User: Fold these one by one.
Assistant:
Number 1:
Amino acid sequence: MMEQKMNKGWASQDHVGEIKSELLELNMGPQHPATHGVLRLLLETDGEIVYKCTPVLGYLHRCAEKIAEGINYKQWVVYSDRFDYLAPMCCNHAYVTAMEKVGQIEVPERAEHIRVVVAELSRIASHLIALATFGLDMGAWTPLLYMFREREVILDLLERISGGRMLYNYMIPGGVRYDIPNDNWEQDVLDFVTMVETKKVPDYNNLLSYNKIFIERLGNVGVLSVEDCFDYGCTGPVLRGSGVKFDCRRDDAYSAYPKFDFEIPVGEGEVGQVGDCWDRYMVRMKEIEQSCRIIRQALEQMPDGPYQTHELKKIIKAPAGAAYSRTESSKGELGHYIIADGGQIAFRHKVRSPSFCNLQVIEKVGVGMMVSDLVAFVGSLDIVLGEIDR
Amino acid sequence: MEMKAIYDLLAEHLGAGALGFMDEGIEAHADIDPARIVDAATFLRDDERLLFNQLMCLSGIDWDGYDENGKGKSVAILGYSDEGQPETSDRVAEGDFGVAYHLYSHSLKHKFTLRVRVPRDVAKLPSVTGVWSTAGWHEREAWDMLGIRFEGHPDLRRMLLDEDWEGHPLRKDYQMPAMYGIVPMDGKPLNKNPFSPDEIAKPPVREEQPPAPDDAPTEGE
């Protein structure tokens, strides 16, 4: 009986012809645990098959771009934290990199190293949440507890260096706010990194990644082709999951990244086709290991010297001009386009957030999926509504 | 490839449609005629020497009041008086609208910046959704925030704001409304519950209905 149904296909045309059916409009979200925030998907379904998927955004809109036209450059750093609240250090880093490009501010080498360390720690924390909640979407409850336990350690480490637990406001144009604390912080970070590499990642792989149920559930589901990725501007783990070796840390070589040796993991289609949900999941898992490598190198090569530029003024004025600068956030390419008019306030500040572009592809790929696979697909995109709605 | 060389190829293709290459400042950019944007975009994507297969970013810009010395004066809302009334200035915005396209080629690893300007009273230009699908949401956002109309866009609705929102907030002459629905917009905490329990507890006023005649057809027949 089951085989018969599978062979015929639930959504085959003749099946629809026999039984009169019409499309059902279904709201998924905005308050739904599988939409990772206040995302609302307007689905048109026939049975379990999605015929149209329209995301409705804006529930978390805070007009950060308009606010940027009213406050000065240094004050805006705090708003960049609130974009991707799971990896605030990466967002800080993106903004100060753009600001330094527009304002032509020199940054000391030590500050760049500290930035890399905290941004990579933040990336690990963000990926842990992505993997944990992805497992939760698929019905695996236990890995969530394990991964949140490790994330807690990162939050403690970042609290010791910045003073904040979730939102840090740590970087400023021209350096970082505080130096590394002298309470054995560097050694604690190294210990944590070693623990993640040697114990935790193998644990996660045993628990979740190579679990038979998990693989059966995700292999060949939500396959994203390279052409679609380029067309829809997908970046980050989503693009790398489809097998493209692109990483702003390597290709744009900003900050101190060119000094460090790391690999760019890509999807290989280990359990299905290249670019399926499992590939995107696995890219994040492998990136955790690479982030650990970067952190270790950055700490070992940590130079002495100032952690802020000496010419740091209270109020920064940027010369007239415009610049687009992009960095690799945990979700993908996070770009800032700042138009300066010579004053202390940006004339126009546009943020290109990775989740915003990654999510758009669902309008195309979501069509023809089962509703339950759509949940897997949204989970594998790893979106954060804070930076989509801005 | 250098930006200047890319611009030379583009200018060769567009002819009079290419308006100039600005190399001053931090980031170079090319100015082109907005009417030729789809032509230019298709050329940039498909030409074998360029292959710009990704649109990184599309930004709408309101150029009103731009002054290179930082003395620009926007007409935006200045603040609120103590009574909560918005304080505004009388200046009328007249600057152009602009759109900036940031392109990247994954195969050739080069970048390019295109800019167009349209007069404020026209505020429309052709959409590049057919060239890069990612432009779809960026253009919707530019329409939402700046009111730039993209012709040929398949689904030009508001992106982040509600459908019934009035005005386009990132315009420099945007005046913040005093009220949105029943919510005052003065930025102060609500000291009065718009849905107060007294209001809800009141029984709804019902008008006297004439009794239905006995032979009236009942529903469902």
Note: The interface with chain A takes residues 24-27, 29, 53-57, 59-62, 66-72, 74, 76, 100, 102, 106, 109, 113, 132-134, 136-137, 145, 158-162, 169-170 of chain B (CB under 8 Å).
Number 2:
Amino acid sequence: MATESNRRRIISYLPAFLSISMVMFLAGLFGIFLMHVSSIKKEIKENILLSVYFKDEVKQADILRLQKELEAKQFVLKAEYISKEQGLKYWKDDLGKNPQDLLGFNPFPNSLDVKFKEEYVNDLHLNTLKKQLEENLFVREVSYDVDIVKNIDHNIRMIGLILLSISLLMIFVSLALINNTIRLTLYSKRFLIKSMQYVGATWWFIRRPFIMQGVILGLASGLFACTLLATTLSLVYHYFPVLNVLDGYLSIIVTLFVITITGMFISGVSSYFALNRYLRMKLDDLF
Amino acid sequence: MEGKILRLSGVKIYQKDNLILNNINLAIAKGEFVYMIGKTGAGKSSLLKTLYGELLLREGSGNVAGFELDKLNSDSIPMLRRKLGIVFQDFQLLNDRSVLENLNFVMKATDWQSADLMAKKSEEVLRLVGLERKVNQMPYSLSGGEQQRVVIARALLNDPVLILADEPTGNLDPETSDEIIQLLHTISSRGTSVLMATHDYRIIEKFPGRIIKVDNQGLSELQ
């Protein structure tokens, strides 16, 4: 019969287990989506090019020296030397026409294509660098797509704000849902809690097992949500490999870990506060 | 307080801001069996609630089992309740655990350490109420009379000086009611005082005891 009472106790926590698991699953899915958005943002920004075109008379050695100087700077990710010939070849490969046939000469100058670390890709920084490079006597022209850089910043800021708002809303909804679920679970035990008080149990003695059950509930829900997330990600990876959802698997593991710990913490703290409420209430107020 | 388990002097009892009982004076001696009668809503339950710390005493003075009622706080209320046995009409058992687990819970909650002593005590109180064969049953699988016996067994675990019973036979048939009252009288004869609120005059006639009446916000002694 002891197993019967345990079985009933476990069953009483089942609705809360499922609700919390679902909340944590959704929160986890959103967290992983957020990480992918940030990696896509990084990818886009680190592929923005600043092209430095050199005068025809400038020797390759001088260009390579400038390339090294640029690569030594902390904000530069990579500076690639593109010779006149390579420039022409890329044009032919991309457009299928040879401008040399029309013009009678190779119009492309030697150049450096400079890529930057994500955090330095903004109009202010690129424009400052452009002006500095244009003062170099070897340089004919420096260009980057101002519109794209400005739009990327603006769009990313907008997307960031939207995602931040959704994240805050998500955190609030998750907290409220888990808290309410725990409170509802304990509401059904309010007379039990009152009975415990009537036999002389101290508040802490009554609280301890409920808080432990809350923490275990959070742990079990977290582990279940992690299993669901892992299965979902595997299925997405299998059917839509182009999305690369398993990229940055370490971050995914961290997300799953954070979700589980957060679930345990919220469930434990919610149990504590919900219990205090019922411990303070008079018997007549429980009906 | 010599020889008295309970003493109230000039007590006013309120439910929120409503005065329920005014200028209550009462003393109960060790081993005394006291019936408390009165109409529904007269204040019997409010008086009992004051005695076990559910309602805090705002005016007057009172002492129950050595605890000053006007000085009770969240730390001392559990200690007071360990000296009392509280028996309700609706049992208030922990329905998610067996009879034995109900008893063990109380003992663990009241700082019993030895498993041997706990086993001996639960066996003793269950034998006293005649439920030694029901130890592993869940409360909902027991009859009303049996559930009330478990409540009484639970109330006896810490050798209380006073049992407060709020209409303990209200949900029971006459035959089972008689058994419960007989049991409470037996407990009383062993030295534990009993204060029992009831509407059942048949029981009072059958099992005589001291009678107090709650009426018109006051308390009077009936002969």
Note: The two ends of chain A are 30 Å apart (CA to CA).
